[in-house]
Design a protein that fits this description.
82 residues; 0% strand; mainly alpha; single chain
Length: 82
Amino acid sequence: MDTELLLAVRNRILALCGERDITVNKLADISGLPPSSVKNIVYRKSKNPKIATIKKICDGLDITLGEFFSTPEFDALEQEIQ
């Protein structure tokens, strides 16, 4: 996964935690994920987080995938041509 995209996912998770005043561990708990799964994304150890993991995070936060990715940071990412 692109470094900029990984950073955008990380930043979004941290922003959502901040908005809700919850820790990464609490996010993992409400999302039904092991804390290491979320921490690996946040600390950029995961180079390719699965969309299923992001979906579980969204479910835990009661938001849609669209809401997760609907930010200026994601909108600013250049479209990759392959």
